[in-house]
Amino acid sequence: MHVKNIKKEEITMKNKASGFTLIELLGVIIILSLLMLITVPKIVNPIRSSKNKVDDLTKKLIYNATDIYINERIMIYPKNTQNTYCIPLINLIASGYLKEPINIDDVDITNTASVEVTYDGEYNFEIKNTNSCIQTIVNPDNDNDDDNDAWVCEPNIQHQGIVYGDFNDDGIVDNTDLVLLNRANTSKNQLENSIKDRMDLNLDCIIDSDDSNILAAYLVNIIKRLPYTG
Ligand SMILES: [Ca+2]
Ligand SMILES: [Ca+2]
Fold first, then answer.
1. Which pTM was predicted?
2. Which of 130, 133, 161, 214 is 20 to 30 A distant from 175 in Cα terms?
């Protein structure tokens, strides 16, 4: 009996000396896990948040560039609540508004993404895969005034009963009308539909510098009558 007891004690001692008990091991694992829980997010979170900040800044740059791009092309992208425009990033790059490569979430989206633009009193922008951005242009007729009334215009159709070139509708076509038209072209003033009717001097349903040039030529008698379609 006595010998047996001693042997038992020895065995227990040996077990103790050989390493951790299961309970102790579990304790160590739990402590290590807790340490990981505390320290890993401390390291990962700043990396993640600084990456998010870079992505946010990139998006801001893209949206600003898109804003300038469409505002400089308001005749092509009129402010219309029914329209959705898709501006590929490569167009913004080609026009010099952005530089490649453009990365979001560590992915190069330069050739695959577009900015989806909608208008509801102000522009809304969203970066989308070009394939999933569907452009909708309800009124491709240069309705660029704020009232969202479509400018009903058919190319090469002449209106009756209006004085072409008479911007201010005083019945006379003179330099004042040219000045007003030039000012409207350069500052992208939003014109009333009736003014667009009178000032689309080449009947292409676009009010631009071509119309200014035609009016200027008319005022110095190079062109004899308005509208002028070449
Ligand atoms: Ca006039
Ligand atoms: Ca025109």
1. 0.45
2. 161
